[in-house]
Amino acid sequence: MKKVDEMFAYYLDLALRSLKRNKALTGLMIITIGFGVAASMTTWSVFRAVSGDPIPWKSSKLFVPQIDNWGPAGHGPKDTSKEPPDAMDYTDAIALMRDHRAKYQSAMYQVGAAVTPQRVGQHPITAIGEAVYSEFFPMLDVPFKYGSGWSAADDDHRAQVAVISSHLNDKAFGGGDSVGKTLNVDGHEYRVVGVLGDWHPQPQFYDVVNTGGFSEGGGNIFVPFTTAIANSMNNNGNTNCVDAPKEPGFVGLQHSECVWIAFMVQLDDAAAVQQYKQYLDNYAAVQQQAGRFTWSPNNRLRGLMDWLDHEHVVPSDTKISLYVALGLLLVCLVNTAGLLLAKFLRRASEIGVRRALGASRREIYTQFLIESGMVGVAGGVLGLALTGLGISGVSWVLPRDIAALAHLDVSLLITTLAVAIVATMLAGLYPTMRAAAVQPAWQLKSN
Amino acid sequence: MQIQPIVAALRHHKAGTVLIALQIALTLAIVCNALFIIHQRVAHLSEPTGVDEANLFVIVNQWADQSSGEQIDAQMQADLATLRRLPGVRDATASNAYPLLGGGWDDLIMMKPDQVQKTTDASVYFGDQHFIDTLGVKLIAGRNFRADEIAPMKPRDSSTPPVVIVTKALADKLYPDGSALGKSFYAMSATPTTIIGIVERLQRSEVDTWSAPFAYQALIWPRRLDGSFGTYYIVHARPGEVAEVMHHAPKALYAQDRMRIIDPKDGVLSFAEIRHRAYDSDRGTAILMGIICAVLLVITGAGIIGLTSFWVGQRRKQIGIRRALGATRRDILRYFQTENLLIAGAGVVLGAILAVGLNLWMMLQLAMDRMPLAYVLVGIIVLLLLGQGAVFAPARRASRVSPVEATRSV
After folding, report:
1. Could you tell me the pTM of the whole model?
2. Are residues A130 and A209 in the same domain?
3. What HEC string does B214-234 produce?
């Protein structure tokens, strides 16, 4: 064991000497690796932040149903996918809630409200949130700091209850346990039943149709869907129609085929998924028989991650940046391979002497791989510094909502170093092979 | 210059040659695709809005209480009167949206009321008779709204106003023969609306990818939208007074009535800020691609210098012999330059193929457009020049190798 240690120390020493011998070349390699790694890691940190699973322990059980209530009018002439609308109209959302075929389910739409806390002299503040059903909270494992969600009975009775984020709790009540306090929302009194814990899923996966996925605001107030409808809380998100509603106002919207409601269900196993699909098809078939749909059932039931992918929640710019940065890393590796080759082969005579004096091929291998590894370590350290710089500067080149998500953590730190070292050693593999192939006799003779 | 001996010599440096050529190929593939992306993004973010951006700003006004439509309408009229009275204000209007808002309202447009496949899509603005003057858009045909045509409108009211002002882009789309003025269309309704005016150019309220086919197609309804959430006040300041007015306007509105919310951070937006936000993704991508291109070119250039320097060092003896046998300095310089041209030439041929392949792949994966071949051509020229530039210093060093070198260490 001692011998191995000694040899390793010797190789390190050799590598250091060799690297010092040609500072410009060594520096160039380190800078190359540093930039390549930093570019990839910075873009990776952004990509990782936006493409991650927002609810990893449960995403496989969450599904988004889609029902085609538009038929051919909803598709362009060249559209062959026959994709149903990505949100629901009021009629279908309410029918699905009433039939209640999944373990948990919630229709939801985005609301924006002027909120006034019951404190004298306080100015109203705006809060953006969602109108949801009571099952929303257990379905998404929403953490509570104080209190809890509301009950199914509250849904039925259109109770004026609200769950607020800790952010809104701080702003409206100055923090603390505000359960039981009242909040004036658009002129109606709501009783606070719960204050959320630290819960800011990005993307706001429960309603990407209306939130667009990534946004700093939103998710600050949750009220019962039924209550929001009864109080005419207007939809703050998207509304899409193929024909204008026949009646005016919010009621007109509810009676129309316009889509504006997001929907999510929890289905625990494959059998439940199958049954729910069957249910959706039966539902659409009944609508067809009733004459509301003049086309055959055309539904979708996508798993959450599939759904996020389908909705293009990850901005394509993030992908482009990552791919181009990986391309840069590849060029950096080719570049490093070339420089290492030059560096190693320049020492052919030295290798020849070492081989003639009894060094085995394996030992030459070890020596040069260690030398590549050292370049990798140095490049990794530089890359780490540049990645830190890149992440702090990323808000300069990316939209705020997305840039805010990129951060440097231990796993990124380790990945950066590992990528640098592994990449450089890969780049050094061929040059090392060439170095180890040097014939002792030939080199000695030619000198 | 004879090429054959150079090729023969390169056979002894296969690995190095292949690595440089490969590096040039990859650099070319990435750089021309990146340049294409940069050009597209810059073109997108340079699109004019048609409005007088320098003197415009927007107040995001939310209502703090759930008033009735009538109350909101009265409040909006009072607010507009307040804003128009402010010193330094040329004109002001209220709307549901403004160009580059990044969202808003759009209508499908039909030529017949029962049309299944719609004709096109138009961004929808609500505005009074001050809208055109406030935004500073140019009326090129017909007339502005008259005061008696303006009416309040509740949200989600689907009744269609009888008259409309459209952009030239929409007019030309609906009536390509240029006869749009006085004609009518259907905007998601059973009743037609008549075009009474055409403005030269007005950008849509969003400039997303999906709406690119409908660029600059917008219409203005003669209505004040009594949005229960709030409204956007668009204010046109007199030249040079925009900063001053931006500062005073929210205070004047609060003084008029307290029951409103104007966000202290994002409630008053200059048009520069609006433009900045609307295109931040485009600008960011362009900058990032620019940085990556620059780093790539520097690294590839440095790599060429590094490897050529090594070759020069390795061949000092041979260079010395050639010099001793009568080759001039210029011959040696030319030798390395030609060698680089051969390697870079092979690299750019491979790179051109890779570049087109990469573009095709991105077209499939990321819905990118087809890259014009001009980008590949520019990339080829850039990389050949880079190669020649990078090789110059080591080649000149080679040319200075003295003929005496031939006699050393033999």
Report:
1. 0.84
2. yes
3. HCCCEEEECEEECCCCEEEEE
